[in-house]
Amino acid sequence: MIRGLLSAIVVLSALLSTVALPTPADASAVRCRERISRESAKYAQSIMKALNGCGEFVIKGKNPGPCPDATALATIAKAESRLHARIEKDCGGLDRTCGTPDDTPLSFYNWDLGNCPDLENSGCTNVLNDCADVSTCTQCVSDVAVDQLVGLYADEFIPSAPSSNLNSCQVRINKESLRLFRTRLTTLRKCWRGVSRERHPGPCPEPGDGKAAIKLAKAESKLERNICKVCGGADRECGTADDLLASTIGFAATCPDVAPIGQPSCGAPITDLQGIVDCVRCVSAFKVDCVDGLAVPWGTTYPLGCNP
Fold first, then answer.
1. 133 domain-assigned
2. What are the tens digits of pLDDT across the range 228-277?
3. What is the span of the domain harbouring residue 85?
4. Number of domains in the chain
5. First to last CA, the chain
6. Domain for residue 99, yes or no?
7. Rounded distance between C-alpha atoms, residue 276 and residue 284, angstroms
């Protein structure tokens, strides 16, 4: 009886030795990398919402500007503090403090890059020694991405009378840009979480979880539909004679020459409403791809176009 029990224990031990159970180091690395992805997405969404909200009040004539105003600055400061604190919590070891000996090593979650890889030569190049530097890097790239995206349209809008058709159109472009930005970041973050937990293969969005690409396509269609409904005249469609003109709305004359992953360049003259829609959709995708790609070096390489 005892001999049989010992034999069973030996067999069970042998079986367990063949199972790739996660080590404490593996578990800490997974927690850390998922925290970085989650918090950098939340930070970018928070500052985009703050600047977008400030911009909406300016468009509606309820705030003289400029943005960010005091309310937006307070929101951004809170988001910055949360970003650093939460990354420290899951990447800073038992003491939850970055820069101490028990940090999860950068190499465990593929952040041993030397320097922050920057965004369009904007100066996000801090040295990466510990998880605090990772927070600084993701914060810098998010700040630049959001500032450039908001500046693409909000800085160019022609002053308009509150509640007029033109004013409503400008407000709608502002709202839909925020919606697309946040939806794209959330969708990609969820997809990468599944890759991190080995639920499905990467990269994201394709092949990803089989859902992300579909969600992104729907979000882009919604952007166009909602902008055209408000800015497209009586027929609520883009590309017809009663559209509001791009020059009337106020928008950059040329869309920036950047390209989302796997897509052609956004660069093109903007002469009509459809050009505005296409530019917002394309540049939003590019900025999100950079913010998202930076946050998951364990799952993909930082897109070359983000810092040519």
1. yes
2. 999 999 999 999 999 999 999 999 899 999 999 999 999 999 999 999 99
3. 24-298
4. 1
5. 71
6. yes
7. 12
Q: Which of 269, 275, 168 is nearest to 224 (CA)?
A: 275
CB 271 within 8 A of CB 248: no
In this structure, the number of other CB atoms found within 10 A of the CB of residue 13 comes to 9
- Tokens matching residue 107: 């190499």
Any domain includes 105: yes
For 121, half-sphere exposure in the C-beta direction (CA atoms, 13 angstrom radius) is: 1
Single-letter amino acid code for the residue at 106: L
Q: What DSSP string runs through 239-287? A: TSTTSPPHHHH---SEE-S---TTS----EE--SHHHHHHHHHHHHHHH
pTM: 0.89
Q: Collapsing DSSP states into helix, strand and coil, what is residue 115?
A: strand
Burial call 228-256: b when 16+ CB within 10 Å, e when fewer: bebbbbeeeebeeeebbebeebbbbeebb
